Amino acid sequence: MKVKFLGAAGTVTGSCHVIETDNTRFAIDCGLHQGSESIEDRNQDTDVYDPRRMDFFIVTHAHMDHCGLLPRMVKTGFSGKIYCTPPTKELLGIMLEDSAHIQEMEAEWASRKSRRHGGRQVEALYTRADAAATVGRLVAVPYGEPFSPTPGVTAIYHDAGHILGSAFIELSLEQDGKRTRMLFSGDLGRPSQLLVNDPAKPVDADYLFLEGTYGDRDHKNESASRDELAEAIAYSYSRGGKVIIPAFAVERTQEVLYCLHLLLKEGKLPKDMPVFVDSPLAIKATEIFRRNPQYLDAAAQAYYNRGEDPLSLPGLRFTETTEQSREINTLKGPAVVISASGMCNAGRVKHHLRHNLWRPEASVVFVGFQAMGTPGRRIVDGAKVIRLLGEEVAVSAKVFTIGGFSSHAGQSQILTWLTHFKVNHPQVFLVHGEQKALDVLAGLVRERFGLKVRIPGYLDEYVLTPGVEPVVSTDEAKARPHIDWNAIFGAMEDRLRLLKDRKEKLAARSAEEQEDFRRRLAAVDGDMLRVLSEM
To answer: Could you tell me which of 6, 8, 10 has the C-alpha nearest to residue 25?
Structure first.
């Protein structure tokens, strides 16, 4: 049996683990790669997935980094079934359509730019028709109900406590008369999180594929996080500024609304403070949450049972249209603006940041993980200036990073979850995390539990035989291409030397031409300064 890691290996996006036996080939999740350009380029490389040979997919939950590449698979030849929980199926109906709309818009924008330079039409990663075809392949399976996508494979969904409908997967594979048990955590939730249930206890397995997003740190407690959100609101309210909250449309937006509901009850949210949810997808997702209270935790269900909506506020406004979104930035005075995307790399939140990031009276509140290469990560890491929508924007707003809102388990919570393995001692593969977090978590798991822990890399393929040391191979040239920095810097130095040699020719040009050249060189210098600031 083989397992190949096509994403979430040393990164937190693009989750996809392909399993191949003598009889079948399938994958757990198929997410979008998000972050830097080099990481997002992986979305185009369909060959490594070989969609035509994929028999089926089993999806853990509805976040795009776990399911957002499924329409690309359908577009390029996948024709099987996609298994998920009932709430995940409902969420995917809106999320894949929204993602496809974004892909089409970005392709059209890139095409216009390409055509202006005499280039070709840019094809969308996938279209809304591809998304609709993907939704048509979804098969909903409830928690705790065994299902067999193909002979020799049995799976069971268990509540992962991450978002509405999220699951970890118990997988049993029969091959040559032997049974191999595997457990895929998906995204493991944080106990005591608002809205959703705590993660279920794990079941015994031979191999555990465990997420480590926060493997190197713990979150603040829920009360402290709520107080910090109140502090951010008070900061901008007293100065007449806006509070911009980049939030994922599913779970994080609803959790923030719930938190604001609690703050209002506690007298910590000004009664005249307008609150905008500026994301059509988040608005639709909120309605799905309201329609599925049976999947929420006891505290949330209690609100609904007594006729109270914990996702509502007196000053709450849902802005669906582009015109309504624009009006927020012409509104005078303070307001809370919850908008997607959560990492600031797409969506309406980029416009709100462009209008407010440079204002010292504004605040930006990050309530989720910011992947490497995203604008959100650069702001969190202390960038003084970032580029948004083709414009350099100063970072003068007060920045808050509230880890306690994360829907991922923190370090201590992951380790506590592992204590429930009583009989079997699984071999552990750490995925869905940056290298530093995974390294720290690996050391703790080895030290406390004596387990064998591996951290797979992108495109690593393991041959697994229970009781035998795994055999690993990878396409090094594709997974980790060599970069000759000496050649790159040498070429840059040669070009700079040529420019210096032609300084007199530059000085002989007209004043207008010299100014044009100066501006172009200043832009190059600015790009170099941005690179240096991120080192």
So the answer is: 6
Residue 97 has pLDDT above 90, yes or no: yes
What's the CA gap between 16 and 8, in Å, rounded?
Answer: 7
Q: How far apart are CA 257 and CA 158, in angstroms?
A: 26
CB 154 within 8 A of CB 21: no
Quick one: pLDDT at residue 196? Answer: 94
Give phi and psi for 431, each to the nearest 5: -130, 180
* Interval 413-465: pLDDT, tens: 999 999 998 766 899 999 999 999 999 999 999 999 999 999 999 999 999 98
Phi and psi dihedrals of 388, rounded to 5?
-130, 125
- Res. 95 pLDDT band, cuts 50 70 90: very high
Question: What does the alpha-carbon distance between residue 432 and residue 412 come to, in Å, rounded to a whole number?
Answer: 17
The answer to whether 399 touches 379, Cβ cutoff 8 Å, is: yes
Report the pLDDT value the prediction gives residue 231, as an integer from 0 to 100. Answer: 95
What single-letter amino acid sits at 300?
A
The whole-angstrom separation of Cα 170 and Cα 202 is: 9
Summarize pLDDT for 460-481 with one digit per residue, the tens. 999 998 888 899 999 888 888 8
- The pLDDT confidence band at residue 202, using thresholds 50, 70 and 90, is very high
Structure tokens that stand for 459 in this block: 């495109």
Residues 6+ apart with CB under 8 A from 496: none
Q: Please give the share of the chain, as a percent, with pLDDT higher than 90.
A: 77
pLDDT at residue 433 in the model: 95
| 71-93 mean pLDDT | 98
Helix ranges (H only) for 150-308 are 222-239, 252-265, 280-291, 298-305
Contact indicator for 186, 60 with CB cutoff of 8 Å: yes
Q: 3-class SS at 337?
A: strand
Residue 496, CA distances (Å) to 261, 377, 489, 514, 533 in order? 58, 32, 10, 17, 21
Question: What phi and psi values does residue 340 have, to the nearest 5 degrees?
Answer: -95, 155
- 8-state DSSP, 72: H
Q: Which of 343, 357, 381 shows the shortest CA–CA distance to 63?
A: 343
Please tell me the predicted confidence (pLDDT) of residue 220: 78
Largest Cα–Cα separation, the chain: 83
| Cα(146)–Cα(455) distance, integer angstroms | 29
Average pLDDT in the 268-275 region? 93
Q: In Å, how far from its chain's centre is CA 98?
A: 15
Beta strands in 303-370 (DSSP E): 316-318, 335-339, 363-366
Within the chain, how many helices (H) and strands (E) appear?
18, 23
The answer to whether 346 and 251 are in contact (CB under 8 A) is no
